[in-house]
Amino acid sequence: MERQVSVIGSGREHEAAAEEVGRLLAERRCTVVTGGLGEVMAAAHRGAKSAGGTTIAILPGEAHTDANPWADHVVVTGIGHARNLAVAASGHAVIAVGGSFGTLAEIAFALRLGRPVVVLGDGPVVEGVPRAPTPAEAVETVLASF
After folding, report:
1. Contact status, residue 95 vs residue 142, Cβ threshold 8 Å
2. Helix (H) or strand (E) holding 99
3. Helix %, strand %, coil % for the chain, to 5?
4. 1-48 pLDDT, tens per residue?
5. Domain of residue 37, CATH code
6. Domain that holds residue 104
7. What pLDDT score was predicted for residue 1?
8. What residues contact residue 121 under an 8 Å CB cut-off, 6+ apart?
9. Contact 67, 57 (CB under 8 A)
10. How many domains does the chain have?
11. H-run or E-run covering 40
12. Residue 77 host element (H or E)
């Protein structure tokens, strides 16, 4: 089984970093899992696809068509924000890029499940969760953790 890394977060200002994270993960033969919508999620998928990678979108709603255009595999949950647990659980590890309350929930779920988490740059501050200043360091840190 290929390694799966969940990329979580939000914010248009973080799209370039998320795209780089997605590309670097794909180059390391990791499948990129996200919540499947826009901003950071779409950018991570776009980066992964640019490097020939595979992507999984775990959607909060009920329509496959809500997924960003770079999603290879789409999981439609119909459970709204509760899908954050599935996003966190589906990765062998998690990289947070930007974000808000949903990102904090996903970090908490990942930690509860024993998944390694790395926060890139100025993402949410969570005690005990390592931070990485660059996309390359975030990817290296998370991949070294499992």
Report:
1. yes
2. none
3. 45, 25, 35
4. 689 999 999 999 999 999 999 999 999 999 999 999 999 999 999 999
5. 3.40.50.450
6. 3-144
7. 63
8. 14, 17, 97, 98, 131, 132, 133, 134
9. yes
10. 1
11. helix 40-50
12. none
Q: Which two tokens stand for residue 86?
A: 């599935």
Angle between helices 83-90 and 101-112 (to 10 degrees): 50
Two structure tokens written together for 97: 């890029």
Which tokens is 70 given? 């770079």
CA distance readout (Å), 108 to 52, 88, 117, 142:
30, 9, 10, 16
Distance CA 3, CA 91 (A): 8
DSSP bridge partners of 6: 33, 94
Instruction: Count Cβ atoms within 10 A of the Cβ of residue 78 and give its class: 0-12 exposed, 13-18 middle, 19 or more buried.
Output: exposed
**Is the CB of residue 52 less than 8 Å from the CB of residue 70?**
no
Under 8 Å between Cβ of 10 and 100: yes
- pTM for the model: 0.97
